[in-house]
Amino acid sequence: MQQFEGSCQCGQVRYRVSGRVATLFACHCRDCQRQSASAFGMALWLRDAELTLLQGVTASWPRHTPSGRITDCQFCPQCGSRLFHQNRDTPQFLSIKPGSLDDTGWLRPAAHIWTQSAQPWLALPAEVPSWPQNPDDFAALIAAWQAAPGDCRG
Q: Which CATH number fits domain 2-146: 3.40.640.10, 3.20.20.450, 2.170.150.70, 3.30.70.100?
């Protein structure tokens, strides 16, 4: 089990989460671009996660994804920073928005998804697996993480 701590942008919400890292990937879908106000969003999936709010409370709303799934999104009600996502059809995974972690120096995506929506100026690394949309099976994202060099996995 690994343990991580982080917070929202304004500091009203602090959290600690422990679990086993399943994968870390970048998503280039338009929803993630809008949510992150950037070229892509990132997702750090933890298996069997235990989340403890150390300070504050989160608000949540259900988001309908481009693939038809429903994702419950938790965010700070004060500053709006997204912190966690959980797909209703894969409850064994908690997705952390990894930019909210206190230590982000080790973050390197093991895969890229929804590259058909990627910004044309962004050069994706050729050695990192990518998919134009979601992979057929999310096990492919987990396998990409397991195949990544050890220095990419924190």
A: 2.170.150.70
